[in-house]
Specification:
By secondary structure, the protein is α+β, with helices and mostly antiparallel strands. It has eight helices and six strands; from the N terminus they run ααβααββααβααββ. Strand 2 and strand 3 form a beta hairpin.
């Protein structure tokens, strides 16, 4: 725009010649560009005359400036070329969109950075909330399975102490039995953690342990299991009436 705001038809200063060549279009280049699109029915002389009129009209426009750039040839002689420089460029639609996008990015860099940071934090928070809900759902399933296993072990011990000498189950063994056994129904597919990862097992099982050990029907103690001290759980609550509580040595009357 500074070039256009100056006078018309002046020789471009040496320090502005490069800028004129970069922003403008020479009359010879414009003539060659239009000549390639010339109709075959239009003669060369007629085309040259029309081009001269069009170039003069173009140079007279308020939003177009024309500058004369002087070149020095190898033999020491000088040649001149007229350059047309428009105040406003006419960009293709795709280029306009790209320039607009670039201007928005440059002009609102901080706002875009904060928006991207907020989106990233929201994504991380949503993932953590989803993981929390998945662990809670998995723990609910495992709590029910753990209590059922403890009740079943207590029933087996009552029915046949010889085959089931202990009514208790070590909590860690019960954890691996429930979380790694293929027969155990897993939680929902989206909520199923990678149980083969020790950290995932520990995180979910901590929830299960807190619920089970607060259950009034479960006794928790530390005892030696094959010479190794272990935390064990024992079901001490009432057994369901539908459970088969008959001793193999008692009469077939339900207790």
């Amino acid at each position: 725009q500074s070039l256009v705001a100056q006078a018309r038809g002046l020789r471009a200063p040496a320090d502005e010649a490069d800028e004129v060549e970069r922003l403008g279009l020479s009359d010879s280049a414009l003539h060659e560009l239009l000549a390639r699109r010339r109709s075959a029915r239009l003669g060369q002389d007629e085309f040259d005359a029309l081009f001269a009129l069009a170039a003069a009209e173009l140079g007279a426009r308020d939003d177009v400036a024309n500058y004369v750039v002087t070149y020095e040839d190898d033999d020491g002689s000088e040649s001149e070329a007229t350059f047309f420089v428009a105040q406003h460029a006419d960009f293709p639609p795709l280029c306009r969109v790209q320039r607009l996008a670039l201007a928005l990015v440059v002009g609102h860099a901080w706002a875009l950075a904060l928006a991207a940071l907020a989106a990233a934090l929201a994504f991380v928070a949503s993932r953590r909330v989803a993981a929390f809900r998945a662990e809670a759902q998995a723990a609910d399933v495992l709590v029910g399975s753990a209590l059922a296993r403890l009740k079943r072990q207590a029933r087996r011990h009552y029915l046949d102490p010889a085959l089931s000498p202990s009514p208790a189950i070590p909590s860690l063994q019960l954890r691996d039995l429930l979380m790694l056994a293929s027969a155990t129904p897993p939680p929902e597919a989206d909520a199923s953690p990678a149980y083969y990862d020790p950290r995932a097992r520990s995180s979910v099982w901590d929830r299960v342990r807190r619920v089970v050990e607060r259950n009034a029907n479960v006794r928790c103690r530390t005892t030696a299991v094959r010479g190794e001290p272990m935390r064990v759980w024992e079901w001490i609550g009432p057994l369901d009436e539908d459970d088969d509580m008959m001793s193999p040595f008692a009469s077939p009357q339900r207790i």
